[in-house]
Amino acid sequence: PYYVDLNQNLFLQASLHSSDLNLTLFVDTCVASPDPSDFKALTYELIRSGCVKDHTYFSYNSSYSDVAQFSFNAFSFINRYPSVYLRCELVVCREGDYSSRCYEGCVSRSKRDAGS
């Protein structure tokens, strides 16, 4: 566990360890939950499909394409849960492949009209 105070900035970094130097890393989704085995019932979204959901979330530009860095403000689930767990999904793409998910950025899904 990593202990922080409420509203303290948390800085995270993910690194890709590969002999292929032409890969890039993209943070697609990060979701928090008070239950480490359930990220569906009670969750808080920091970023979803590349779209920032929390106003304290900030992505840093790394000088290395195989490193993703971001930060957010520590929060609590209505002061009822002593711990918060984070699950992040990252995407690995070929550097310079502008048609890949890494270069799409925020992908908001449009809702379909159910009709009558």
Automatic annotation (TrEMBL):
Xref: PROSITE patterns: ZP_1 (PS00682), ZP_2 (PS51034)
GO cellular component: extracellular region
Gene3D superfamilies noted in UniProt: Zona pellucida, ZP-C domain
A Pfam family hit: Zona_pellucida
Subcellular location: Secreted
InterPro entries, sorted: ZP-C (IPR055355), ZP-C_dom (IPR042235), ZP_dom (IPR001507), ZP_dom_CS (IPR017977)
Residues in ZP domain copies: 1-109
Tagged with keyword Translocase: no
Keyword field: Disulfide bond, Glycoprotein, Secreted, Signal
Keyword Disulfide bond in annotation: yes
PANTHER family according to UniProt: CUB AND ZONA PELLUCIDA-LIKE DOMAIN-CONTAINING PROTEIN 1, ENDOGLIN/TGF-BETA RECEPTOR TYPE III
Designated name of the protein: DMBT1 protein
Organism: Himantopus himantopus
